[in-house]
Amino acid sequence: MNNEVSVSITTGDNPKDAVIKGINNLGGISKFIEKDETVFIKINLTTITGFPSNVNFNTLIEVIKLCKTAGAKKIYIGSFPFENLSIKDVSDELGLKEFIEYYDSELVFLDNSDKIKISKEEKLKLQNDSFKEVEVQDFIIQYPKIILNTDKFICLNQVNVHPLFDIHLSLLNLFSCIPFKFRKIFPKENAVKDNIITDQYKKKLISRILDIYEIKKPNLVINDLFYFMEGAGPFIYKDSKINPIKYIVCGNEAIATDYITLKILGLNPKKNFLMSHWIEKNIGISNLEKINLSGENLEDINLTFKQCKKRIEDIYVQKLNIKKGQICSGCFLQSYYLLNFLKTFMLKDLNYLPQCSYLIGTNPLEPDSPNNIILYGDCAIKTTEKREFRTIEKEGRDIKTLFLKKAIMEKKNKKILEVPGCPPNLQDTLNIFLRYFKKSNLPALNFYMKKLNKTKKNG
Ligand code: SF4
After folding, report:
1. For 6-300, CATH number?
2. Separation CA 433–CA 379 (nearest Å)
């Protein structure tokens, strides 16, 4: 294969036609897969909901079939899911293992969640056998050996909107080649103000995404936007919509494929955080402009779509009044998922909740009342320690006086819910909500969390 960077934009009546055309435009599947090679197909496998949070199975089937026609010896398929979900959970819920086996391929339980009832020693051995430790900047992460060892690596990425990076690019898909715990970003400790001004969270996140991409670059990248989730995003059914855009973008290089994908969606790659970082750091925009483009004419495509809300205070959730201070991308992103989760899965529960003030960031705005205040994140907790609403005045007996005279006493306000973390994680936050507002008031959340908590140990 020569080093020319090639990308193809295709459309069709269905994803099957579009993906076949796309790969043919790049020279056909045999240009990527040789006889008797092993292949790993990295898909989106995020939650126990189906498509488009996860891969489009129609496209996946076609890619499997193409690999088979090229003579692939073995086809592995996999990804790590969101937060503490295990692959087994997602697979059991969606019947994924059986589905993939039906197409003579193998769903890889990268997290070994299919191995139950094994001893600690066996678990440790399995861990050592399955992962290679890789140093990423000053951080050791575990990368699955099976991805490193397969002959060819395909990234099949379902494109949807994304709250921080505009759309779910293939670089984000490749980021979930590693377990969620290694994708977590912790801004520098004790430097809250600095963290926010310089947005340490976003900087570190982008660096880590690009570092993971460098560990093993895919040979073939397929950005599938035949069906594209616009609006709030794929986990959020309430304010989202599937838009049949009917395009698939394939390429032999992830950055170039993402670059063209942004362009066909009418987005400026230079303004995309991930892409602009890459352009600055590595190759310069001129190289990307030399992409060998085939298929549909980029200039003729004029797509528009509804993006995610970019300001947390613009997300309306019944019973929550958002009082924002200065925030960084960490609290924005986690809060985005939390607020939209509440809107989607707790619609009924919200009726039982009292009106709450949701304070987020450093020096947030004043709460509406001293009752039911949610302090989201370490910044909100720390910078409000001395605020008036932290204490309430109550009539009591003054023990310093001889006859315990009646007096107005200052007491700690107990109607405050602190959600610690920098940023807080979604599952912990939901558990804190359950404890504070009581399970009986949140039946839908209680039901959901029973399922989610069961898998926490596998994260
Ligand atoms: S608590 Fe939130 S806003 Fe503050 S530095 Fe951490 S992630 Fe950023």
Report:
1. 3.40.50
2. 19
